[in-house]
Write a structure and sequence with these properties.
This protein is an all-beta fold. The strands form two sheets. A four-stranded antiparallel β-sheet has the order 1-5-6-7, with no helix packed on it. Strands 2-3-4 form a three-stranded antiparallel β-sheet, with no helix packed on it. The termini are far apart.
Amino acid sequence: TNVWVDFRAYVDWPDSGATPYLETLDGGGFYVATNGVLHVWSNTTWVSTSTTVPENAWRRFTVNIDYATSNWALYVASDVPNALSSPVATGLPFSPTATNTHLTRLTFEQ
């Protein structure tokens, strides 16, 4: 089963360099660091990507959750109207202790 979650978020870089806390049961997650770099949660580890997003701007994010392979992927679109999302990171494994049968929580934090 594939689940696609598509949303828009106003990106405001954080003031501190604190890394968000995720439970080892969490299958995936991402955040924007103080320099605009996207970090993704892969197999219970935060991984820095080569993608940056501008501060004080709206962006469209797309998350693909593939329960059959226990992987997820993150995509982000540019500021061009109706732009397609480009891959940031794909084939990211869920944590070994994650329940890979359903989406249990979707959280947005500032």
